[in-house]
Amino acid sequence: MAALASAVVLVGILCVLDLLLTIGVIKKLREYGPAGPAGAPGRGMTPLRPGEELPAFTAVAVDGAPVSRSSLPDEALIAFLSPSCEPCRAELPELVAYAAAEPGGRDRTLAVVVGEPGECEYFVRELSPVARVVVEPKGGPVCAALRVDAFPAALRVRSDRDRTVVTGHVVELAREASAR
């Protein structure tokens, strides 16, 4: 009987210890979250949602052409990729095929490649024939203005008077292509 009582006490102590460790992990996850410690770039960004107005932004494409909210044509696609992102590398051929099939040519797709210029060369080479391409560092002006801090991501924008976001933050290109 003493052995049974000891086992119950031991299990109780282990449960309390497990509970304390779980609470500690939850506190750390709240502090650090998916974007890093509080105050880190991108922390607390709320992605644009369908129906929201596209914020103003300006950038220069790799070919030297200015890019801004007002330069986007109707139903423009803005795709955000990073060479350090494995899903971005995997989806690059799909994005290239999707942009090539877009009516209106390369002006209808804006690709924002986030990273150091040297590491972005492959993405720029692949995307330039089918999209206007902007290269910027993490937390750059286009990502900051459009509240993008996760990759890959895409926005479909309707070209009405206020440039409204039609499709949300992360778009599966194959699903969107089948909806057209």
Throw out a few tags for this protein.
180 residues, alpha/beta, two-stranded antiparallel sheet, five-stranded mixed β-sheet, single chain
Brief overview:
The protein has 180 residues and is of the alpha/beta class.
Describe the structure.
The protein has 180 residues and is of the alpha/beta class. It contains five helices and seven strands. It has helices at 2-32, 86-101, 121-127, 141-145, 173-179, and strands spanning 58-60, 66-68, 76-81, 109-114, 132-136, 153-158, 164-167. A hairpin with a 5-residue loop joins strand 1 and strand 2. The chain is elongated. The termini are far apart.
- Taking pLDDT < 50 over at least 5 consecutive residues as the criterion, the unreliable ranges are 35-43
Roughly how much helix do the residues carry, as a percent range? 25-40%
Q: What's the arrangement of strands in the largest beta sheet?
A: 5-4-3-6-7
- Our Rg estimate from Cα atoms comes to 22 Å
- Our measurement of the CA-to-CA distance between the termini, rounded to an integer number of angstroms, reads 72 Å
Structural class determined from secondary elements: alpha/beta
Summarize the helix and strand pattern as letters.
HEEEHEHEHEEH
Give the number of helices: 5
Q: Describe the global form.
A: elongated
Number of DSSP strand runs: 7
Mind summarizing the main beta sheet? 5 strands, mixed
